[in-house]
Queue: 2 jobs
Job 1
Amino acid sequence: MVHYALSMTQEFWNDLFNLPIATNKKARRVLGQMMQDPWSQQLHPEQVRQAENGVHSSRVDDNYRLIWKHIKPNHVVFCLVDKHDEAYRRARRKSFALKDGIVSVADIGEIGARAPSEQELFGWQRPKKDSVGVLFAGYRD
């Protein structure tokens, strides 16, 4: 039997205490099961797409997911509990580091980033129709 070193983030505790009472009970039951075996098929573990490698989710109920990170070989960090879509969105922003046996978790936030439109990206290469030939307009052959 594999023994896992377990850690819980402050964000996880905050999420757990802010859940509705019925969901909180379910989340604590899932947490107890995960302490025994985080890979149990009853928990429906799955990799979180577009997240850092090793970030997984387990089902609390139909609406809520528990997000956790498996750090090889045997460390599990419980990160957050939230509604399905919100949990996955938040999980994609997490970054983990293990140094000297201590796990640090960072939340990578967006700072007004957005993808440029095609016009913004290549607009500088396209001349405007009213300004064609303006650069040499004052010169004659």
Job 2
Amino acid sequence: MKKRGVTILAIGDRKDYDSHRKFNKERHFFIDNGFDYASCNYKDVESGRFPKVQTKKVMIFLFFPFYHWDKYIEHRHYKGVYGNLKFFKKFRKFNG
């Protein structure tokens, strides 16, 4: 079997059924075309847990962080203005 040179790493939440979960369902297309494939969620990333990667190169696909967004930015009782500076700063804090 030919050694693969690139891993596709998809990072997203299961709550993102429209993009991340569909992307994961189609992983066989990447594997069939010579890529390794791995997936994890943002909670794993924040905890320093990543899937094992056997290649030297990794292509990372980032999907929307729904759980973080719903818990810290636009939570159930949020009364602010969507998209204002405070909103931006909270999201930027997530990005480091």
